[in-house]
Amino acid sequence: MGGMGRTINGSYAELTLVPATNVLNVATDLSWEEFAVIPESYATAWSCLYGNLQIEKGQTLLLRGATSALGQAALNVAANAGLKVIATTRNKARFEKLLGLGALRVEIEGPELSKRLPEAKKVDVVLDLIGNSTLLDSIAIPHRHGRICLAGWLGGLQPVKGFNPLLQMASGIHFSLFGSFVFGTPEFPLSEVPLQEIVDRAAKGIYKSKPAAVFSFDEIREAQRLMESGKANGKIVVKV
Fold first, then answer.
1. Is residue 32 predicted with pLDDT exceeding 80?
2. How far apart are CA 208 and CA 25, in angstroms?
3. Burial readout 59-77 (b: 16 or more C-beta within 10 A, e: otherwise)
4. pLDDT exceeds 80 at position 3
5. Where in the chain is CATH 3.40.50.720?
6. How many of the other CB atoms lie within 10 Å of CB of 114?
7. 70 vs 94: CA distance, rounded Å
């Protein structure tokens, strides 16, 4: 978190130095490979849902890009918090997995979802992990007091063409961004995330946070290839 592998080098290092502000004390009996999938994904999901989107029990959440590691974490957290989650994926073969994680319903991801979604203009909150390519469609989905958080760019970082908030967003819509690289900064202390509570829920099976694949340190190239293929369907762990 806080930029590891982005602004901080060392994501594939055996030893590295991280900022003290990104270190928390956590007690758990989970194995290292089980524990490793939790901090980045679940801290980010928690911050998006409880911070940016300010979720409340009973709300309807549209989760775009739900089969990503962050998407699965967000689905776990939101469903456990009592939200009605509509999850999206491009692959029908992943419907069962998302329903098992707590989704109320699964929709095929694609262009103009806002025109196909029965709950359009009734959704309370939207967590968009696909990014710029779906942003204009996402802002057409929540009701006039709804919230949208853009927190992933699975579809790439191409510029959003023709984005005119004054004309394209309903009055009252709240739109925000979140990226995990801010963790550990004075404005986003990691201590705000209840990581011990999250880990405890994972240990009890409340959050289904098992790694999608585990590689040894000598298999880094294979791990990288799987990540780049987009077929991991979850978090990849490299065990030192």
1. yes
2. 22
3. bbbbbbbbbbbbbbbbbbb
4. no
5. 40-182
6. 19
7. 15
- Beta strands at 213-216 and 123-128: parallel, antiparallel or unpaired: unpaired
DSSP string spanning 134-162? Answer: HHHHHTTSEEEEEEEEE---TT-----TT
User: What residue has token string 């939207």?
Assistant: 126
The answer as to CATH 3.40.50.720 being correct for domain 40-182 is yes
CA 93, CA 147: separation in Å to the nearest integer? 29
Using CA atoms, how far apart are residues 203 and 73, in angstroms rounded to an integer?
14
Q: Looking at the whole model, is its pTM more than 0.85?
A: yes
DSSP symbols for 16-41: ----GGG-------S-HHHHHTSHHH
CA pair distance 127, 21, nearest whole angstrom: 27
Q: Write down how long the chain is.
A: 240
Residue type (1 letter), 138: S
Can you tell me the distance from the alpha carbon of 51 to that of 120, in angstroms, rounded to the nearest whole number? 23
Give me 193's structure tokens.
Answer: 């995330």
Which helix or strand (DSSP H or E) is residue 228 part of?
helix 220-229
Q: CA-CA distance, 179 to 32, in Å (whole number)?
A: 24
Give the pair of three-digit tokens for residue 118.
């029965």
Contact 172, 145 (CB under 8 A): yes
Question: In this prediction, what percent of the chain has a pLDDT beyond 90?
Answer: 72
The rounded distance, in Å, linking the Cα atoms of 137 and 123 is 13
Which of 21, 44, 31 lies closest to 198 in space, CA to CA? 44
44: CB partners within 8 A, 6+ apart: 1, 70, 73, 151, 178, 180
